[in-house]
Amino acid sequence: MSVSLVVAAATLGLATPASACSHGMNLYYNSNQAGSSRCYEAPTSNFAGDVFTTSGAGQGQLVKNNAASARNYRTYANDTWPTARIFFNSNWGGVYDEVQANSSRNLSNTYNENASYFWVL
Predict the structure, then answer these.
(1) What is the dotted CATH code of the domain comprising 3-120?
(2) What is the DSSP letter of 12?
(3) What are the C-alpha distances in Å from 8 to residues 1, 3, 14, 43, 44?
(4) Cβ neighbours, 10 Å, residue 64
(5) How far apart are CA 63 and CA 7, in angstroms?
(6) Which residues, 6+ apart, have CB-to-CB distance to 73 below 8 Å?
(7) In angstroms, what CA-CA distances link 1 with 7, 14, 37, 76, 113?
């Protein structure tokens, strides 16, 4: 196998949402971590203009007020702020949902009403 084929095969393996967001938080268009997703690693004060990027239902749709579930790929072993807090309003305001380190869940307080997020202990 040529070097270019090995590199191409390795690159294809990184295309999944889990590996593409191995150190961040994914928001998903559908419940149960289904449909298109968007990876975030840095706190975001406003999801306006962000779209779901992976293949699946919701691809190309706006993230703001459209996410139904989330997956946090951070772990307590290697991160200072491992819990993702997803807020109802922009600029980290209003009610929120928390997604603990190395876990996933359907959103409840911010189900299809989400506008920002940051990391907390």
Answers:
(1) 2.60.20.10
(2) H
(3) 11, 9, 10, 31, 32
(4) 20
(5) 32
(6) 18, 21, 22, 23, 24, 25, 26, 102
(7) 10, 19, 33, 39, 49
Tokens read off for 116: 């920002």
Residue range 55-100, pLDDT digits in tens: 999 999 999 999 999 999 998 766 677 899 999 999 999 999 999 9
Beta bridge pairs of residue 117: 44, 86
CA distance 70 to 62: 15
pTM (2 d.p.): 0.81
Task: Report domain extents, the chain.
Answer: 3-120
